[in-house]
Amino acid sequence: MYDLVIRNGLLIYADGVVEADLAVEDESIAAIGAGLKGRREIDADGCYVLPGGIDPHVHLQMPLAGLVSSDNFTTGTIAAACGGTTTIIDFVEPQPEQSMLEALAMRHAEAANQVAIDFGLHMTVPTWHATAPHGLDEVPAVVEAGCLSFKMYQAYQGMILDDVALLRALTAVGEAGGRTVLHSETGPVLDYLRAEALAAGHTEPIWHAYTRPAPLEASAVHRAAELADLASCPLYIFHVGCQESVEAILQARRRRIDIWGETCPQYLLLNAEEHLGGLSGELYVCAPPLRTIEDNRALWHALAQDALQVVSTDHCPWTAEEKRQPDFTCIPGGVPGIEARLSLVHHFGVNQGLLTLERWVEVCSTNAARWMGLTRKGRLSPGCDADIVIFDPDRTKYIAPDTLHEAAGWTPYEGIEVSGWPRTVLLRGKVIVEDEQYIGAPGDGRFVERR
Ligand code: MN
């Protein structure tokens, strides 16, 4: 007799689909089989049973230029849970003169008892750390503390690493057994193009897209792949938004360079014409920028063909008021999306025949667990954490700010009715969402050391 048995569901694995019961004992998956008995039983007839979603790229309560992103650790992780995500990875951003471990301790304090689902942290390597004589000394200790991955940028003042700084940081991380997640754009050229456009009197949001050309995203990916290869550091390209970058990743993978790519729902479903939507064009400013419908198609194809491996959200929510700025260069970048990710990829990917059920689970959960070192997550296997989503493919959901738990007050997916939504969600054996109602408590989530 197990603690809990999920009966009659269709279990979805990255490499197959099985009709079976799934038993949970304490916090772990205990058994998969037929006729399992539990003290509590949940009937999943007609539903898919999948490993909890993993979103390895979110920005909760992130400070930026005097603002703070609008979902805090509590609202953001409750929204994630309701959408079937049971693990997120957020960021630590050390300030100038601040040690990485000190910044990590501060971020832990902010998250403590606030998170509704499990979480990990990427350590950011800002310019001042990458270029200071002893700025990278703490990298091995950060890896030891369970932050396996280091965030680097090829754009943005204060964050940007030129090629030499990038190589130096990649080498330090590689030697420590860590890995690198990268924002890839050719920042200095974009800064020049943006300043030129502004000087010519262009202020509208569409100029955000015009001044960040796709080939300059791809050439940054290409250079980073070469540097990561020199440094023997595994590399993961964040938020790939165009077919040129997919091609750069594919070329590197063909040469056996250790590189992965992720994309996000906004790059799969939206395009730069959103900026022309009158007053709301500024809402869609994110970097890299939204591209074209042809890019949307190329990204779905890349996901299906394993040229890209993960769908994250880069959830970085700002209110409409915060997004309203005098010109395109001062709009805080980022869009919300933490809640609907799993369902959007199911609706537009699986239901449209672009992805198999197995690939859906692989790109929304299993692959992120593999690369990010979440060894007990992302799979429905005995011994793994019982992070489980019971997903009803027939349940419809009209997406709008008041049907979601996100705090931004708007969503780029408003008006879409998806077929398929999580019914019940378990975090390490505890039911935290029951029939779409959140019944967990902030503090249910734990920091996960990644190895
Ligand atoms: Mn981001």
Task: Characterize the structure shown.
- The chain has 451 residues and is an alpha/beta fold.
- The protein has two domains: 2-50 and 385-438, Urease, subunit C, domain 1 (Roll); 52-372, TIM Barrel.
- It contains 14 helices and 19 strands.
- The chain has helices at 73-82, 100-111, 127-131, 139-144, 163-175, 187-199, 206-210, 214-231, 243-254, 265-269, 293-304, 320-323, 341-350, 357-372, and strands spanning 2-13, 16-25, 28-33, 38-43, 48-51, 53-55, 63-64, 67-68, 85-92, 118-124, 149-153, 179-183, 235-237, 259-263, 310-311, 388-398, 417-427, 430-434, 437-438.
- The strands form three sheets. Strands 1, 2, 3, 4, 5, 16, 17, 18 and 19 form a nine-stranded mixed β-sheet that branches. An eight-stranded parallel β-sheet has the order 6-9-10-11-12-13-14-15. The chain has a two-stranded antiparallel ribbon with strand order 7-8.
- Strand 17 and strand 18 form a beta hairpin.
- Helix 5 (163-175) packs across helix 8 and helix 8 (214-231) runs parallel beside helix 9.
- It is globular and about 70 Å long.
- Bound molecules: manganese (II) ion.
